[in-house]
Design brief:
129 residues; alpha+beta; four-stranded antiparallel sheet; two-stranded antiparallel ribbon; 25% helix; globular; binds zinc ion
Amino acid sequence: MKAMICYQLGIEVGRPVRIRVGRLGHFLFPAGRYVYTGSARRNLEARIARHLRKEKTLRWHIDWLLAAPGVRVATVHRSSLSECVLNQKVAGRVLVPGFGASDCRNGCGSHLRYLGGVSAVTAVKNQVR
Ligand SMILES: [Zn+2]
């Protein structure tokens, strides 16, 4: 079995939020569903647990988004694929160029993708049931 080295967070933004994302600056995140792809070659579970915790020092771009009001992680998916391969499988738009992609050498543009509005969230919830 291949080791799980990457993860994808399915994120729900309940209402539009305008927040600072570290040094990238301020951005408006429309309500809807997002997918963030990250990697942790060691201690993957600890990394995921950290993302799910609200209280923490804001360090990575994703920390700033997850700390915003009305934002929550709805799903966690683990993978043995590389971060960029996984990210590029996600349809969806880049809203914040460079988000989570400081180390990216594969032209992803961003490791956060916006899938769309509230109806998309509902559709995914219905699939889960
Ligand atoms: Zn990438």
